[in-house]
Write a structure and sequence with these properties.
The complex is a heterodimer of chains A (109) and B (210). Chain A has 109 residues and is mostly beta strands. Chain A is built from one helix and six strands, in the order βββαβββ. In chain A, 8% of the residues lie in helices and 29% in strands. Chain B contains four helices and eleven strands; from the N terminus they run ββαβββαββαβββαβ. In chain B, strand 8 and strand 9 form a beta hairpin. Chain B is globular and about 55 Å long. Chain B starts with 38 loop residues before the first strand and ends with a strand. The chains are: A mainly beta (109), B alpha+beta (210). At the A-B interface, strand 2 of A face strand 8 of B. Chain B: One of its GO terms (biological process) is sarcosine catabolic process. Chain B: This is Sarcosine oxidase subunit gamma. Chain B: It holds the Pfam family SoxG.
């Protein structure tokens, strides 16, 4: 069984207390009505499926019930780090840098 | 005060109240069972449970809570108590206040007064959950076979409280004394926990306290 570090509880907890909630760092367009159908469709439905490092959203469902981000290697399942939402990840894959600074998008993701 | 409707949710008099384990008829089981029970179960029923949310980084919130309750806001994974009143950390912006039955309205009003104008939330959740107190020399062994969380005294000192997976479901474990633990359970799960605890405590001997 994996032990995952919850940044809110501040300790390692058993994997069964957590749920993965998909890809992290998906900025919501600030003005959805200005998006083209393609942009909105990309935002809503299209997710990365990398081989290697992946930034993911997890929830400590049975503990403090808070969301946080994790960087996980999809090949080895190694979790390199967990960090609160709004923080920048330390470990990043080259092709998988979160696009935080795009103009017109929310920042705290 | 804000426009929030605060009203007594507990019936004043003569209303029939049933605790979550009413159907188990625990009072009739008091005094039965083994002579030297390893585990003693007590249902702490009809207490006032209030969920408090706010910003722990705001000094005004921290001092307001202290002023209203006389308890300091607990840090992560801890519970602080004074008499029958306890305040527990549930998450980075969420706490659970448990007061003796009947005092929840006064506590809520005091909190709202002390935190007036702040971005906070106080919700009475008394009807939704209850406390089971387990005491005795074998409680830790019952916990060990129910949860994957480490309940060794090195990792679980008195005053710690964690939400975790327990017997395939979820609850909050609080350690209130050397041999005294509390389980904070949801009302709708109470029968499941009652059945589970009877089975898990069978080898150690279970007795019921009123």
């Amino acid at each position: 069984m994996l032990h995952i570090f919850c940044p809110h509880c501040g300790e390692l907890r058993s994997e069964e207390e957590f749920h993965a909630a998909g890809q992290a760092h998906i900025p919501r367009p600030l003005d959805p009505s200005a998006c083209t159908d393609e942009q909105w469709g990309d935002y809503l439905f299209f997710r990365d499926n990398p081989r290697g490092l992946h930034h993911e959203l997890w929830i400590h469902a049975a503990g403090c019930r808070q969301y946080f981000n994790a960087t996980r290697d999809t090949v080895t399942y190694e979790i390199l780090e967990t960090y609160p939402i709004g923080a920048r990840p330390q470990a990043r894959a080259q092709e998988n840098v979160p696009q935080l600074a795009v103009t017109g998008q929310g920042e705290k993701v | 005060m804000s426009a929030i409707n605060v009203y007594p949710q507990r019936p004043e008099t003569d209303a029939r109240a049933e605790s979550p384990l009413h159907h188990a008829d625990l009072p009739s089981l008091v005094g039965k069972g083994r002579k030297n029970p390893g585990v003693t179960l007590r249902e702490k029923k009809f207490l006032g449970h209030l969920t408090l949310r706010g910003n722990a980084h705001d000094p005004a919130f921290v001092s307001g809570v202290q002023q209203a309750l006389g308890l300091e806001l607990p840090v992560a994974l801890t519970v602080v108590a004074s008499g029958e009143t306890s305040l527990q950390w549930m998450g980075p912006d969420e706490w659970l206040l448990i007061v003796p039955g009947g005092e929840e309205l006064a506590a809520e009003q005091k909190l709202r007064e002390a935190l007036d104008g702040q971005h906070i939330q106080v919700v009475n959740v008394s009807g939704g959950q209850t406390l089971l107190e387990l005491s005795g020399p074998r409680v830790r062994e019952v916990l060990m076979k129910s949860t994957s969380y480490d309940v060794h005294p090195n990792n679980f000192p008195v005053g710690k409280a964690v939400g975790t997976v327990f017997a395939k479901s979820q609850l909050v474990i609080r350690r209130t004394g050397e041999d005294t633990w509390e389980l904070l359970i949801r009302r709708s799960f109470s029968d499941y926990w009652w059945l589970w605890l009877q089975d898990a405590c069978a080898e150690h001997g279970l007795s019921i306290a009123s």
